[in-house]
Amino acid sequence: MATLSFAGVEKRYGAVQVLHRVDLEVADGEFIVLVGPSGCGKSTLLRCIAGLEEITGGELRIDDRRVNDVAPRDRDVAMVFQSYALYPHMTVRENMGFALSLQRHPETVPRVEAAASMLGLSHLLDRFPRELSGGQRQRVAMGRAIVRRPKVFLFDEPLSNLDASLRNQVRVELRRQHAALRTTTVYVTHDQTEALTLADRIVVLNGGVVQQVGTPDELYFEPKNRFVAGFIGSPGMNFLERLEADVVGVRPNDVTLGAGPHEAEVEVVEKLGFEAMIHLRLGEEALVARVEGPAPTGRVRLDFTRAYRFDRATGERRG
Amino acid sequence: MTLALLLGLLGVAQAGEVTLWHAWRGDERAALDTLVEQYNAANPGTTIRPVFVPYEALSSKIEAAVPRGNGPDLFVYAHEKVADWTDEGFILPVELPTDGLHPVNVDALRLREQVWGWPLAYKSLALYYNRSLVRTPPDTTDALLAAAEALRGPDRWGFAWEASSAYANAPWMHGFGGGVFGADGAVRLDAPGNVAAFGFVQTLAALGPAEPSGALLTQLFNEGSVAMIANGPSFLGEVGAVDFGVAPLPVVSETGKAAAPYITVDALFLAREGAEARAFAGWMVSDEAAEVRHRVGKQMVANTRVEVTDPRLVAFRQQLDTAVPMPTRPEMAQTWEPLARAMRRLVRGAVTPEEAASEAAFQYTIVSRPAPPAADPRPWIVVAGLGGLAAAVWLAREIRGAPLARWRFAFAWVAPAFSAMTLLVVLPFLVGATVSLFEYDQQAWTFVGLANFLDILLARDFPLTSPLSFWSTLAVTVAWTVANVVLHVGIGVALAMLLREPWVRLRGVFRALLILPWAVPSYITALIWKGMFHRQFGAVNGLLALFGAEPVSWFAHWATAFAANVTTNTWLGFPFMMVVTLGALQAIPRDLEEAAEVDGASGWQRFRLVTLPLLKPALLPAVILGSVWTFNMFNVIYLVSGGEPDGGTDILISQAYRWAFTRGHRYGYAAAYAVLIFGVLVLYGRVANRFAGRKVV
Q: How many CA atoms lie within 13 A of A47 on its CB side?
């Protein structure tokens, strides 16, 4: 159990700056998701917490202890890698018990067995990683972290190598684990759905700069800028450049069809059963609306139940 | 030209055509060509066709071609094989002109009251002296000792010669009244004259530079660091800017006899009867032709009517008067190693002259031990026949009912590799294995069954702890292999890990540099290290001297000689392991080590618990290969320590070599060694495979 505190954390490789002054306070037991497009610096930030990358500026504290120069093995954090990084020459049991056995911890065996039964791995303890399925490997990787009871869990895109249905299942399981263990967790993903479903708070990163920090609701309903608005939510927000002086942002479910000040032409209809995505042309601009029930054709009138306005130059939200 | 050479080698001769094989190069070859041209022009009925054969190949080619009738009519070779070749009937007796040829040259070719070749040229040792340091060369051994003492300085010596060479010490042995053979014609290495000579050698060597080899003598003489050396005529061409003279070797003060070096005579031998060949050969030793050979070919010719003007060459001619023809008897070949071994110990001061002489005599009895009794080959033939039958039955059962027609293409594809392997691996192996059941003596093969193996395994001729015994050599070989492989893997893996560290700059440059020892031919590296371990002039002792250490005689003690060998071979061997490791490291995901790092493992724990186990699958085959190579690493042992001290650092393969080639051609015994080596390695391979097969990731 621990808090994390970032004060002006920077990371640069020679002339290339990959993290710009990151300020963030993570409360004890909080589940933080770092999200952003690839190359935004989210993995680097995670590796800085683990100590696998050195911080080149600012200060990082775990539980008020400055850890800038502390070796990874002395930080008491556990990390689940995207590749799982299971030791191929060790059994599941040895993998999960590795960290504790290094310390000759007396509870190595019971803790491994407890974690294994929690994750449904008890019958696989004597197998080698190569004998496991992807989902099983993923659980072993999580088990390896859980067994340690570290101050902080770090997850680096742990679900990206799983298929869609398994991903949903593990997502729920992760949430359940966290509810049970309440360990401070930092989780990296590029998938905004994962971010929204898992996080207590989300940190959106772009180009090494923190765009916004907030709860899933805050990010969805009150995005601070055009980037966050576009990144969070699926399908993404429509941006209409020519309608007003500012850029107007409308989420597809905030578009109502049938009446309103604007007239658009239906171009494509994607039916998704219960709902449909209507691709519209409004003047010279493309727009997606999400509707329930029968899809219209031809020309329709439409209105926006809610619209956001963003500064054309800076992308900052106005009012 | 190629065709002519081919025809010549095949011995396709036409009437009046005389084929002549020789190994002369440079000036000597030019002289021969001139003479042949001249002779052919003057004798229209005869065509002499000289064919050059490299020296190393010449004698084996002769021994292969002559008995089959496709050898040359004439060939040029040193006289030392006369006894062998007359026994075999390869060469015919000849008539020589009654005068003009120096008698010692003729004596060298005389056997059983007949002369077996036309003596062309000779060589022997003589005394070279630096005229700026020595005004008159010493004419007695006392004067030589006095000069050696007087001319000695901090980095200078009065006299040097190859003090551990049996050939170079022959003059002293003869001068002191000894020699290889006693008055009764039997080998007497411990004759009193030899003991006296050994005493003199020990005293004189102590006044000279340490470990004097031929190359070192050349260098020291040319630098002016040594005032006098004993060397042969070929050294004339190697002297640099030194103003030098040549004199005959001195007279031994104690006996009044001259220090008599061996002479070796290059002669023309007649391999096929023919009037043209005899006529040409007779002309080759005539005054006219000898003159050309001397003038153009720079030969020291056997014909003494040729006028020699260069005083240095005159000295070699004077040396003829006291020289002794190199004995041609087969026992001679077995005396070199025992003598050289005793002399090395003598020069090193490890033994007294008496001990050296008796050790030489004892070693000779070992290497010249009579052949085991002939065995009855019939049971063996039966066993071999049954084995062959069993193999045939097995093969027939294996392929019975197989769709042979469908496999035709498969057979065709495999055939080239199969025949190459059969020709290059299987057949030589079978021949070697067969030879191990025979004993070779005086050109004759005797079937002896397992006698060679029993002799070797039961260490019948020497104590178990003698360096000559199979078991002690096996122990050394195992120690050698283990030490090397541990160092190769240790250093190779460590460097590979280091090269992967992110803070290492110029990684590519280092990688290339570290692979370099592997890219240089191993014998060159071995010779360089050999030089670096020289006691007086080696870089290793030079380096030690910087730290105030006394110079080490690396090859005088077992541990240091072994260490020198291991150092050299480690230098040669670690790059392979490094390259294998670098490759294997590429395949280990970096995040495994990062995971271990986050899991709390220290650097050493990460290496031991994660990286090393993952390297194992790649390293194990490399280790198995490496240990087999090291087990048979002949080059380093032969070239660096040469088995010093006293064969103690010889490994099985170099021991086998010595039995075959330096201890009187004990081919059967050596082949048995080779078969035993093969057996040991097969056993090792099986064990290693089982070990490796158990835990591969």
A: 17
